[in-house]
Amino acid sequence: MLHRYDVRDLRLFTGAALRPLLLEEAALWRTRLRWDYTQSVGLLLSYLDSRILPGFVALSRETGAVEGYCFSVYETQKAVVGDVFARGEEKQPLEVLLLNHLLPMLQHTPGVERVESQLMLESETMQEPFREHGFLADRRLFLEAELPDVRELLPENGLVRRPDEPVPPLPGSLHLQRWLAPHYQPAGDLIHRCYEGHGDSHINDQYRTVQGSLRFLHNIVRFPGCGVFDAEHSFVITNERSGQLEALLLVSRVEPDVAHVTQLCVAPRRRGYGLGRLLLRHAATQLAARGFRAMTLTVTEANTPALKLYRSLGFHERLGFYANVWTKARS
């Protein structure tokens, strides 16, 4: 049935042509992930109107309507698959068709040495094009924990502290405080230190350098792709003697009552002291007190220590997806 569609260059179309499709996708984000995707849609529409995004659309020959789209972005020697989405009875075949146009284009773009993709709303069928084009996959999980009403808080709740339960003391000269703008540069250094040699640095090569980690932070703080950054409920642990950051937890709002943890990391030398658990519980307690009803995060399935921590605090799997990576050196 795919003969009923034409695949065209995305840059031939304005945001108006894709708006109905994007609003349908936003509704799916809200249903499946409890995530308000409308701000991302607004940003994407502005880029579409500028006609600068490389990608493709699936166009119905019968109605002339856009029934599917995909786009990518270039970052120096890397390309990132931004999104792939289609609707209708041929949803999955259309998404595969679009990927089979997009992936070879990215792999053969002069100067591109690496292609990354993390599509949270993907189906298992969408993995076929990635496998066929030589990508390596790591399964990731989207986890969720319900936050209780603090007025009805039960003693056995592990994630949110009871109102009479104090914050556990920190060892030595460590100090817990809210995120502030001056933490930006030290946070980039901390993220780089935390992910050096870590499996997630294969999935996201920004972690491999301080400058890359700062770009990662910039995307979290300045752009709505991961929700609206919430400095009030983001926290760091600092060493008061050296001034160095030892751990951090960053949070964004993805719905009025849902928070998403965009980053949680602890310096290698500070692991084993329960700092990650402390940060999660502290942020969750503050969020619950402000009326938030859920906290979400993503984790690589192979990251056993992190996954064990999250599950012990009551997080459960809402859905699974894949991080796919292709490098020219390996192909």
Distance N to C terminus: 33 Å
Low-pLDDT parts are: none
The number of helical elements comes to 9
H/E topology pattern: EHHEEEHEHEEHHHEEEEHEHE
Q: Based on DSSP secondary structure assignment, what is the total number of beta strands?
A: 13
Kindly state the mean pLDDT as a whole number? 92
**How many structural domains does the protein architecture include?**
2
Residue share in β-strands: 25-35%
Helix content: 25-40%
Q: What is the name of the CATH topology of the largest domain?
A: Aminopeptidase
What is the name of the CATH architecture of the largest domain? 3-Layer(aba) Sandwich
Radius of gyration: 21 Å
Query: What is the 3D form?
Result: globular
- Helix/strand-derived class? alpha+beta
How would a textbook summarize the main sheet? 13 strands, mixed
Top-tier CATH class of the largest domain: Alpha Beta
Q: Which superfamily, in CATH terms, is the homologous superfamily of the largest domain?
A: Gcn5-related N-acetyltransferase (GNAT)
Question: Can you describe what's shown?
Answer:
It contains 9 helices and 13 strands. Helix 1 runs antiparallel to helix 2 and helix 5 crosses helix 7. The protein is globular.
